[in-house]
Structure formats: structure tokens, C-alpha cells
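Incident log, structure service

09:12 report received: a user says their structure output differs between two submissions of the same chain.
09:20 pulled the input from the user's history:
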Amino acid sequence: MRAPLALIVIATALAVSGCSSKGLRDIRSQGTGPDEFAIMPVKPLTQPKDFNVLPAPTPGGANLTDPTPAADAVVALGGKETALQPGGGIPASDQALVSASSRYGVPANTRTALATEDAEFRKRQGRWTRIRLFPVDRYEQAYRKEAINPFNQNERFRRAGAATPSAPPESE
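09:34 re-ran on a clean worker, output below:
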């Protein structure tokens, strides 16, 4: 009689333990961890065309392999690399882009402010969810009102006359 009871208890424990993985949907912080945006790879080394004509070393100056994320972003967006060099200023061709992107101001602490606002939002949303009998998807629960229904948006665009791609029916 003891063996079947023990097997039932072990089987139940194994079955329940299989339901415990929340994966990426667990929105609580697991620790401070590294800042993934602080890691900047260096540019690849290049060989000069002529080793006899090399620039003089500048102590404390910039290296050719040093990362320049701001200048790289300007070039990637179609601007000129000289826009961020000292004395270069913003070219007239890029002035509209700079004005449009900074029209509401550019706060220096965007990541910290967003993290604080998100923590307050999740705290307000999860006030009564600490007591629960069954596991709850906290991510879906906290952001339910923020989610966009793609089928409603698709219909809205179609009514406005915009060309929209076909979408699967809602039942799928």
C-alpha cells in the first residue's frame, strides 16, 4: 500500500514541477545584470596603404578603432559624419531631421525614467494579484489594456481606404 501512494506522490510532484517555468514572460527583475547597451564593439583594424606616411601619434586622442556610436547612427540615418565632429555643426540638410527628432526634448535619463514608470505601472496593476490559487501570467495581466487588437486595426485601416495585406481569420 505504501509503494503505490509513494509513486502517486512522486508522479504528482513531477507533474506540478513541469508547470513552473515562466521563461521570458516573468517580468520581475532577476538582478542587476550587465547593461547590454553599454557594450560597444570596436571597429575592425585596417592596414594603411603606405606605412611611410602615417599620422603622428596624439596622446589622449581618439583611435581609428574607437567606437563612435553617435556618428555611426548619423551616417546610418543618411546624415554626414562631419555633423558630430568638433566645429562641424549640423548641416542644413540634417537640420529638419534633428528638429523633428528632438521636438519634445531629449531627456538624458530615458532608461531610468521608463524603468521607474514601468515599475509603478506594474505595481498598480498587480495590487490584488499577490493572492492567487493558480499560476497567473503576470505579463499578460499587467499589459492587457495596453495590447493592440490586430484584427480591429486591420479593419480600421481598410475602412480608411489604406491597402492592407491579407490576414488570417480571427479564429486561427
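09:41 both user submissions now match this output. Likely a transient worker issue. Closing.
09:42 reviewer note: The helical segments are 2-17, 69-76, 92-101, 110-125, 138-142, 150-159. The two ends are 48 Å apart (CA to CA).
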